[in-house]
Amino acid sequence: GLPPPRRRPRSEVHPIPSPPEVLRLLGEHELLPAIYFLFSRRATEQAAEQCGGWGPMPDADAIYRRLEHGLEGLSATDRTIGQVQLLRRLLPRGSGFHHAGMLPTLKIVVEDLLAAGQLRVVFATDTLSLGINAPARAVVLGDLTKYDGVSRRPLAASEYRQLTGRAGRRGLDVRGVAVVLY
Predict the structure, then answer these.
(1) pLDDT at residue 128, rounded to an integer
(2) pLDDT tier at 23 (50, 70, 90 boundaries)?
(3) Would you say 166 and 132 are in contact if contact means Cβ atoms under 8 Å apart?
(4) Residue 28's Cα: distance from chain center in Å?
(5) In the predicted model, is pLDDT for residue 2 greater than 80?
(6) Which of 42, 73, 98, 171 has its CA 20 to 30 A from that of 110?
(7) Burial class for 181, CB neighbours closer than 10 Å (0-12, 13-18, 19+)
(8) Signed CA dihedral, 121, 122, 125, 127: sign only
(9) Distant-in-sequence contacts of 145-150, Cβ < 8 A, 24+ apart
(10) For residue range 34-60, what is the model confidence (pLDDT) as tens digits?
């Protein structure tokens, strides 16, 4: 008989949508702010940078002042590191990132701005899902596997619940939306 047809990898059949595409759709459905979970520090910063082309937030000046207030305790050298410079550019445009490799004061500023509803999106590793009550209408899972220090493995059911449980603002939203990218 005939050989079976060659199957294309899923990524060829359905390309994974980019963070700006996903967020544009969420915005059209009034599902912002969102937390967009990715499982590498570098990926969170790169995705936030991809979304840095949005216009400024209506309260961009207040966002910038909050960041500068948070930086007051840093040395002049620390104020020049890449994370600080990137957040100075992105936060007033409504995009931020959060991961364990950040300076603690930067994490606090991002958490405060998200909690105040002053950001459109925060790209984060799963460390943000622990113990924060952030007003996100939607959560996006950029992947269903993560590196655990030894190998890549599927998310555990408890990890999935913890991440998706960040969607929906307690007392404000009747529902929260979790988006899983194919």
Answers:
(1) 79
(2) very high
(3) yes
(4) 18
(5) no
(6) 171
(7) middle
(8) negative
(9) 145/39, 146/39, 147/39, 147/40
(10) 999 999 999 999 999 998 778 899 999
Count of beta carbons in the 10 Å neighbourhood of residue 13 = 9
User: What distance in Å separates the CA atoms of residue 24 and residue 31, rounded to the nearest whole number?
Assistant: 10
Answer whether 57's CB lies under 8 Å from 164's CB. Answer: no
Cα 5 to Cα 1, 9, 11, 35, 99, distances in angstroms: 12, 13, 17, 40, 43
d(C-alpha 39, C-alpha 127), whole Å: 10
Q: How far apart, in whole angstroms, are the C-alpha atoms of residue 131 and residue 139?
A: 16
Separation between Cα atoms, residue 130 and residue 140, nearest integer Å:
16
**H-state helical runs in the chain:** 10-13, 19-28, 41-50, 60-71, 82-90, 104-115, 157-164
Q: Is 16:47 a contact under the CB 8 Å cutoff?
A: no
Asked if 49 contacts 137 with a C-beta cutoff of 8 angstroms, the reply is no
- Tell which phi-psi region holds residue 179, choosing left (phi > 0), alpha (psi between -120 and 50) or beta: beta
Closest Cα to residue 54, out of 68, 33, 29? 33
- Evaluate whether 98 touches 110 at the Cβ level (below 8 Å): yes
